[in-house]
Write a structure and sequence with these properties.
Elements (H helix, E strand, L loop, with lengths): L1 E5 L10 H15 L3 E8 L4 E6 L2 E7 L14 H11 L6 H11 L3 E4 L8 H8 L4 E5 L23 H5 L4 H5 L4 E4 L2 H9 L7 E4 L21 E6 L8 H11 L3 E6 L4 H11 L5 E5 L3 H6 L3 E4 L9 H8 L4 E4 L4 H4 L6 E4 L5 H12 L1 H14 L6 H20 L2
Parallel strand pairs: 1-2, 1-5, 2-4, 5-6, 6-7, 7-8, 9-10, 9-12, 10-11, 12-13, 13-14
Antiparallel strand pairs: 3-4
Helix pairs in contact: 1-15, 3-4, 8-13
InterPro entries: Glyco_trans_1, Glyco_trans_4-like_N
Pfam families: Glyco_transf_4 (PF13439), Glycos_transf_1 (PF00534)
Protein name: Glycosyltransferase family 4 protein
Amino acid sequence: MKILYINALYDPYIAGGAEISLKLIVEGMQARGHEVSVLSMKPEPGLQTDSVNGIRVYRAGLHNRYWPFQKERPGKLSRLAWHLQDRYNRSMQTYVREVLRVERPAVVSCHNLVGWSVAVWDEVRRAEIPVVQVLHDMYLLSPNSTLFSKGHSGPKRSFMERLLRIGYRQRSNRLTAVVGISRSILNRFASYGYFTQTARYVVHNARVIPESNPLRLRVADQPLTVGYIGTLSTVKGVAWLIHQFRQSGIDGTLRIAGRGKEEDERYLNDLAEGDSRIVFAGYADPQHFYRNIDVLVVPSLWEEPLGMVAVEGLANNLPVIASNRGGLRETVKDGKNGILCDPSESDSLGRALRMVWQDVGLYNRLAKEARASVAEYISVERMVSEYENILETARTAYAGK
């Protein structure tokens, strides 16, 4: 089967979990004998052909006001202008048309379309090729990709969000298939009328996660090292974690690893100022980081599509404290491998921290269950097989129309 994958970025340019998962899928499909290629973006103009681990990768220059993956956050007017063009970016269709002409794929698998826009869907459909859309975030519902605004992730979209997504719902119902990386994200789109006439599937992401952090049980009165690893931003709940840790009264430290926009990093550092127990580690190798903490916290305020960082923590024999939002509820099982807390109850996170610190029996029970509870998520073969079946089904169904 000849497959073209379309995503905003591709290896070695990684912005998040979507790119990591896509690389595993693409290389897994190639290893099974499928002919695969990738169309991604770059900040410089023009179309460039690259080779990554024997896979043909096209990198197309983004036609818009700025490169969205830069560290600095542009001004409000500049961002608005960017999103207006990104609502339906006709300028990017030329690249899609050219690559489709050269590759002639049997099926196209779309992933994160930020920068590309749903203009990609129309171009592929004009070529009479089946389209499978994989949902990694909320980009198709909101330009900020999170549906999080003014401290809330509620069911109602703002006027601007609806305006910038006019026509998306109708187009989504003309695709061949859609895949959610969790049941939560698929249901979220369905609640807005998306993909109601499209074949729907759930495929949980997977990672190769060696057991590099052996099971370590706690004893009474032992200090607790709390860890956070990921993007440093408000939507990820890092400020909430800092506040709750400072107020919890636990004997321990908080290690925060990751980077974010410059203004977000400054804000979070200001929140932690004066508390020597809080350490900002910057970029950290995940396996090394997990070996040096006792519990992982994933305090997201938005509806996380899945939350692979929680899976990584669990696979490293760590109990996980997480928000009861989105796909996190599909990986973190309250009282079994971790504790779920509610961002709408600000003190719930502090209570969870005190529980795992004070109740050694609880901590040890959660730690013992952690890795076994995410066996599904550390099987890349399982993930690749499921995508292989979905793409073959989509190709066959389209050919039969």
